[in-house]
Amino acid sequence: MSTTDLLASLQNSFIGRDTEYPTVDGKRGPRIYLDSAASTLMMGPAYDVGHEFLEHYASTHSDLHYAARGASHAFEWAHDKVLEFVGADPANYCCFFAGSGATAGFNRMAASLARARPGRDVVLVSEMEHHSNDLPHRHHNAEVVHIPCEGEFERYGGLDMESLRATFDQYGERVNYIAVTGASNVSGAITPLAEVAALAHAVGAYLIVDASQMIAHAPADMDAADVDVLVFSGHKIYAPGSPGAVIAKKSVLGEIKPAELGGGMVDDVYIAEYMPTATLPDREEAGTPNIVGAITLGAVLDLLTRVGMDKVREKEIALIDYAWKELSAIDGVTLYGPDPAEVARTGTLTFNIRGFDHGLTAAALNDYHNIQVRNGCFCAHPYVRELLKKELWEMDIDPDAPNAEGDIERKRGMARASLGLYTTRADLEALVAAVRDLVARRDEIKSQYEPIGSNGYRHRQFSPPAGDIFDPARNLENFLARSA
Do residues 413 and 464 share a domain? Predict the structure, then answer.
């Protein structure tokens, strides 16, 4: 099969892409899923591989019965697929799985590097970071310095490299590491990792990369960029339910002690002492691993490697350019982050409609057009506030006010449409048409909603309960009825 045919086959394989939901007009149809930056859909072939593995399921770390031997082989294979996908030479890098997403990896590296290098008491973090690549560093280190972005107000985004150079000059060898996103989960702005790595290494600091938003959209090459640690989550790259992946230089791991203790990461244990293993990745994977999740992730990465992430990136750039151009042309719509013609971006588009709170935009797109987007601050509150600062000032709202009331929170956010491998030009054409419809019927649609909670909205006549959408209890009852 050619790579073009394989890509087309994969695009049509995703579970749940055509799930149908009702709309306000009484009709029912397939959803348009534009919430991939939060979680992607499951790639069908990867699900099949994981499901078939369950027929042979057993724990790893043994080869004395068939199933354990197969599980150990498959788990090792998953590690190899991760290293291959991110361009990390296994002679220099190690992959290990941690937790249920990227957050566990950041907490582990922040705590471990703070203990290992106490003389380096400063950590640099960009202002674009998701909380998971910001708060752990604040918690475990004496001083965190946030690096600003370029531009201002709604065009704020893309790491300010001049400011970064000045900060490295100021703190020098006090810097333990710098933590940056590979691509922002708010604006999609891509960070020049090789340049950042060179600046960090010049003062003996490490580079930790949050690749969660980059991993499914652009090629990764840790060797070429000389990245020290890269972390991502499988639920951002078509393997929901998989563990987080941490890829680190063996030289970095050699400086730190095991962060989690338990079975599988020791050579021997006595009442008086225990001896952690020096074998990687075993030393970093205490306990029984999420074998099924790791295998499904490995299957996704294997298939995407065969396609080539350069082809995936090429496809997405055309979609980004189309959506940016069309949404920008709609009167009353504000797009956020740098123009993709000026700063490379992944397929994440955040926007607001004049006169609509972000929660109302998301609710109306869902209820009237079956288009599923995210809204809010996307666990990147400081960055979102910078993007919205001018608008909030014009509404006499302090963007940095703590403990904001609900009416302020309804203004302090945006809607986010985010692309996946399954996103088509037709999906984005539908989004553009839907946004135009909301703008044209602004007063009519606003009159149909009431505010709920701190930033939610609910249609006054149309609100199917969650249990009608999916109810696990009902599914179990149906199973029992069929089995009776």
Answer: yes
